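Translate structure to sequence.
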């Protein structure tokens, strides 16, 4: 297992300035999925590797949130169930980056929003220079039920498009990747912005 897409446990601990004990405590607490720990044979025996683009944002998120939230609250932000947490328009428009007009259009007749909804509203709000939310009013976002999904903004023939997928996608070389964001990185921003008020 090699290449830029993976990182060894030793490299991860050094890069993120965390201890072996912290890493495995977060695993036991359910903050890092068991399946992210990938054991591979190496010349010196066995080593644990991780997908770089999964584990580094997750560690940074945990570090940012651990002193502000209880364990169960952090779990909800990292791995929310669709019916566990509700957000309301009056709360999310208090986030400076969120455009209240986009929020109200997105909400339409909804009484409340999920964390997935808020993440998408945030992404459309901060990318208005290339995305017009009106073009996506009929888009079905209901299948977005994991913060491990990726949000791509693609440039093709001088027009921008979005792609939301469960895994990293291999994009045709004729299409430019303008931006790629993991949804969990945005949920962490939202968690800090809201300051735990939406209990």
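Result:
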């Amino acid at each position: 297992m090699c290449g830029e897409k993976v990182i060894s446990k030793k490299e991860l601990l050094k890069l993120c300035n965390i201890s072996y004990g912290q890493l495995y405590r977060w695993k036991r607490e359910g903050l890092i999925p068991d399946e992210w720990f990938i054991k591979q044979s190496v010349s010196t025996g066995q080593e644990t590797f991780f997908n770089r683009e999964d584990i580094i944002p997750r560690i940074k998120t945990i570090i940012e949130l651990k002193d502000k939230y209880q364990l169960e609250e952090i779990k909800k932000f990292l791995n929310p169930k669709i019916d566990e947490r509700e957000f309301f328009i009056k709360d999310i428009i208090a986030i400076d980056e969120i455009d209240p007009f986009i929020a109200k259009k997105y909400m339409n007749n909804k009484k409340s929003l999920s964390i997935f909804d808020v993440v998408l509203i945030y992404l459309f709000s901060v990318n208005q220079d290339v995305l017009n939310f009106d073009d996506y009013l009929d888009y079905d976002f209901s299948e977005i039920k994991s913060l491990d999904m990726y949000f791509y903004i693609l440039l093709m023939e001088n027009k921008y498009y979005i792609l939301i997928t469960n895994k990293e996608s291999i994009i045709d070389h004729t299409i430019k990747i303008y931006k790629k964001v993991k949804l969990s990185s945005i949920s962490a921003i939202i968690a800090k912005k809201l300051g735990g008020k939406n209990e």
